[in-house]
Specification:
Length: 239
């Protein structure tokens, strides 16, 4: 997720019943007053019809401006305020806008505290179910002691045409930790890689599963994918 990306919830009551195209248009028009967008916002309707929009600005300054300007602003119309006798807005009556992909504020760290703990979402939950659009695989137990990054990339090319691949390192280290990801140009190529793992299940062999990161980054998340994300939030203490 880019640091130019925002997440937005708590929309005006009158927007809840709009068709998706109209809703996206209203959100886009509002956000463009803060700066240019890379592409139209994506909208997800969750449980109880709660709306959540995600948008990426062309500049980080515009994303920060959107958060500072819109977060906590009363989204009620004058008529709605009058019906509520001009009572103070509830939380649901105020825009909630957050900047994604940012690092926490720096804080003092003891010299003996060691490197920070860094977890990727694919390490928290391993996906086994297959969807036709999936092209990315998360890898584990890569033989990084015996092979270089170049050799690992060449090995992956034997399964198809990788559009991208990356190998993870622990914080504060330049050494590969045996985990990584690869995104192929087709779903069938990714299936072939996972099938090879299934045939070589001996202890110490490379393992892999469908990438949860790819699914969460998909702007058209289905209810099934959202169901995958909710247990993760619970496990991590986000809910």
């Amino acid at each position: 997720v880019s640091s130019r990306t925002i997440r937005m919830t708590n929309f005006p009551a009158g927007w809840q019943t709009l068709a998706e195209a109209q809703l996206v248009g209203k959100i886009k028009a509002l956000l463009q007053t803060m700066g240019g967008l890379e592409q139209p916002p994506s909208v997800l309707r969750g449980k109880h019809d709660q709306l959540m929009a995600t948008a990426t600005f062309s500049a980080r300054e515009s994303a920060e401006k959107a958060v500072k300007t819109l977060h906590g602003v009363d989204n009620r119309t004058e008529a709605e305020k009058r019906r509520m006798n001009y009572a103070a807005p509830r939380d649901v009556d105020k825009f909630a806008v957050f900047l994604l992909g940012t690092s926490p504020e720096p804080r003092e760290i003891r010299e003996d505290a060691g490197p920070p703990l860094l977890l990727y979402v694919d390490e928290i939950r391993q996906l086994e179910d297959e969807v036709p659009s999936a092209k990315e695989v998360f890898l584990r137990d890569l033989p990084v002691e015996d092979y270089t990054e170049t050799q690992l990339r060449e090995w992956l090319q034997g399964f198809g045409h990788p559009e991208g691949a990356g190998f993870l390192k622990d914080p504060g280290s330049t050494e590969l930790n045996g985990k990584g990801w690869v995104r192929f140009s087709s779903h069938e190529e990714a299936v072939g890689l996972l099938a090879a793992f299934a045939e070589e299940e001996e202890e110490g062999g490379v393992q892999g599963n469908w990438s949860l990161s790819e699914r969460l980054q998909n702007s058209n998340l289905s209810d099934a994918l959202q169901a995958q994300a909710e247990p993760i939030a619970i496990e991590c203490g986000f809910t």
